[in-house]
Amino acid sequence: MSDIIFLNGNYLEKENATISIMDRGFLFGDGVYELIPVYKGKPFLIDKHLSRLRSSLSLIGMKSDNEHIENLYEILLELIKKNGYQDHFFYVQITRGFQASRNHVYQEDVTPTILVMGEKYQIFPREKLSLGFNGCLQEDFRWTKSNIKSISLLGNVMLKNYASQNGFYETLLIRDEKLTEGSASNVFISKGQQVMTPNLGPDLLPGVTRDLLIDLLKQNGVEIKECDISRKDLIDSDEVWCTSSTNYCVPIVEIDGKTIGSGKVGGNSFKSYDLITEFISSL
Length: 283
Description:
D-amino Acid Aminotransferase, Chain A, domain 2; six-stranded antiparallel β-sheet
């Protein structure tokens, strides 16, 4: 028996779920998504994740006043109960929905397609993080509204697979000689005692884990700055680490063969990992 998922008002086994080939998400990538961790059987930072989902919907001209969108928290709790999830992840996808003809222009009365399903991702233990990871640099050729958590992820897929196929953990992205983010993560660097991360804007996703880490670092007396980070700043930094919902701190100790700092995982990376781990443990 496969996991129980939620699709358009129904709870059913994942292997039995189907959508129409005329769904605009299938034909156009017309939709948004959210990835929500579950720790100890509870959705993590749920208000922030749902707020970002509503923002993404608004930015593509979709309303949030659908019954199932309004009840997403209750749907998550029901799926946790039905599947017995403890430490897991939820993938929530909302497309503009079914339209009888393939047309770039969407009808205003289209009913959205709403999918919620569980996913299992490997979270790296501290021992693995202590070895450090390597990254590579590529030009950020994605569309210029990366602040929307769009299901149209072809650019991200190509860039993440470039890293995977060439023996790297992550591709770090440069646009106009400035760091934006990773192909599937936000990025932090440190130089001396100063921790920095790129300014929010249309070039990068407003990461929930990113925001949590900024708050936790500030609460613990770490000076952090949201600012432009040049290619040179990145390469010359003492530490680089990536954050995301699936792995909340991944230290990068080498970029395109160039050693970062000492070549070992530094104190700010470990501190970031430990602060988020402690925060999760306290829930």
